[in-house]
Structures are given as C-alpha cells and as structure tokens.
Specification:
single chain, 390 residues, alpha/beta, Aspartate Aminotransferase, domain 2, 2 domains, seven-stranded mixed β-sheet, 15 strands, 15% strand, globular, binds pyridoxal-5'-phosphate
Length: 390
Amino acid sequence: MKNRELIYLDNNATTRIAPEVLEEMLPFFKDLYGNPSSIYRFGGKVHRYIEEAREKVASLIGASADEIIFTSCGSESDNLALKGFCNYFGERSQIITSEVEHPAVRNTARYLKDKGHALVECKVDNVGMLETDIFEECQIDEFTIASFMWANNETGVIFPIDELAAKVKARGGFFHTDAVQAVGKIDIDVKKIPVDMLSLSGHKLHAPKGVGAIYIRKGVKVDPVIHGGHQENGIRAGTENVPLIVGLGKACELASRHLKEENVRVRALRDRLENSLLTSCKGAKLNGNKAHRLPNTTNISFEAIEGESILLHLDENGIAASSGSACTTGSLEPSHVLTAMGVPYTFAHSSTRFSLSRYTTDKEIDSVIAAMPQIVEKLRKLSPFIENAD
Ligand code: PLP
C-alpha cells in the first residue's frame, strides 16, 4: 500500500478517536494530573470532570449518573456483571446466555460453569436470531442472570432485548446485556427496557481503547471483581483513568448529538455496498437477519474462497475489513457465531465483515465496490472447491 489513505471498514473491531475526543483528553495528560480522590482543590477539580463524563455516558443510554461505573473495557464490564452477580448470590446462581455471545461473555460464563454454576447457552436460527420460546424449558428465579448481547459483533444482528428482559424479569431473574456494539450506533434507553446491567466500551464509539463502563440499575447487587479502594462506589477499585474517562464522556456526548442522522447516512452507505457486492460477486450470500441489524455492519460470504485471502487482497487495495475465520493452531476455524447459525463450511470460511463508521465516505464505498468483484473472481479461479473455474 503506497501513498494511499487507508479505507478503514473494520469499525466493529475498533474505531478511530474522534478529534473532539482527543482535544478534550489532552489537558488531563498535561496539567490536570491530580488524583480525583485527593481532598485539595486540584484533586476536586479533576473529580468534577469525571462526574461530568459520568453524566454524559448516562445520558446516552437514559440512565442516571449514579448508575454508571467506569471500567477498563467492555470485557471487564462483562466480567463484572457475570462474576459479580454469581459471587454475590453464591453457589445457587445460574447463567442463561446465547451461543453467539462475544468471548467476553461466553468464556466468562464457561469459567463460572467450571466453578459449579449452571449454564444454559440458547440456540440461534440460521439468520442468527434466537429461536422462539428459548426460556420455556429454563428454570428462572432470583438466582438467575440472563446475559444476551444487544447486537452481534460479527453479523450486526440485534436481539429483541426488550422482550427477553421483560420475560426474565417477569420470572424474577436478572438481565445483563453486552451492548458494546450497540451503544453509540442505535438508540438505547434503559428507562424503557428493563435491563439490570449493560456493558459498553469506549473504543467502539470513537473514544480510546482502555476505557469502558457498566450501567448497574439502582438496587441491583454485585460483588466487585477488583478489590481495593473506595473508587466507583466501592464496586471497581483503582485510581480512575481520568483522561480516558473524559474521552469516553465526550464520545458519548457526540454520539448523543449525531446518532440519528449518522444512522440514516451510514445505513444508506452500508446498503449500497451490500447490494452491490451481492449482485456483482459470484457466490455472494448475506449472513444474518437482514431486518434486525446494526446500520453499520454487513457480513457476506463468498462461496468456496477463504476469508483470509479476501482480506489480504483487500489490504493490497488499501482496504481494512475483517473475516469470520480465525487462524488458530495453523488451521482456519470458522467463527463460533457462523457455526452456531449453521452456515455451511464453504460459506463460513469465506465470510467477510465490513463495518462502517461516521467517518466512512461515499468515495471509500465506491472503491470497495470497484475492487471486490475482481478479487472474488481471481480467488474463485484458484479455489479447489470449484471444479469449473468461471
Ligand atoms: N462484547 C462485544 C460484543 C464486542 O464486540 C467486544 C469487542 O470486540 C467486547 C465485548 C469486548 O470489548 P473490549 O474490547 O472493550 O474489551
């Protein structure tokens, strides 16, 4: 890639820091370095900025500021929700989740299963949506935590969190949602949807990496995972990462301000890209429920060619995207999400995810639309799975 601007379409992996966010953080790396817990005014001043950031995060999701706990990332927030719940409620506590959760929830739930907690992983259908009546056979009580992602990081599929949370609450259980991919991309209001806990992460919405938050509804009890000082209401010890918290606050403020119009613009770009690739590339097939999806995500399989090869060819063209296969121990494993959806082998291996952001332009989409058909045609000719190369 020479002298070419990167076309970055991997925004579900991470996003660039918004210039306004960077600007807002800089004083806290230089002059405003006080410890927010110190009692002199220099500390108090810094503390006030943390509380302002808390208000901004809360406001984006309809929470009150005292229901927001800052963490280091989405994974920490997910760990706090599940381990915090199970540690507080003890050995009788059990977890219900889905087969397609991010490893931050999936592996935490499996860890807790190994520690003796019951775990149910609910199935999804062939478009990544939960099967109906998933809770019919589940025992749900006050020792149950259900954890379902708001939106899937690979396919963008949005679960019906309002219905799921209402069902679990009606039977006395608690509900956590991993909303790391949803916050800042779609409208979320915890006043209208009865979730007890919600995880979010800064680097998915144009704030820096290394900062996240969890919403914990008033009255919901969890044990801390990180013990120590009294910070964050005693729920998450450790001197606050002030610059990053301020950055997260600013990113949430920007998201609140621009979400509606960006939603429309980004969705139109995504649809244009998707429709074009589905018609111009041989063997292309969409993964995931078309109607219930994040506006910025499309996940497309290109029959019988390897996702990793597509990514390398896109990279040659200055385009960054992501694949649904992960290279583990030398073999390409299709993602657990596509496997759970029953996507056939020759499609699962070739899945490619394009995820857009508020910085994605028309021109960038034009470049991908121009590059992909040739890449697919070339790789199909090399594919051992296609007998008569077309
Ligand atoms: N949950 C989902 C759905 C994600 O997509 C991610 C990151 O990709 C995480 C959790 C983990 O967030 P973080 O990278 O901030 O730990």
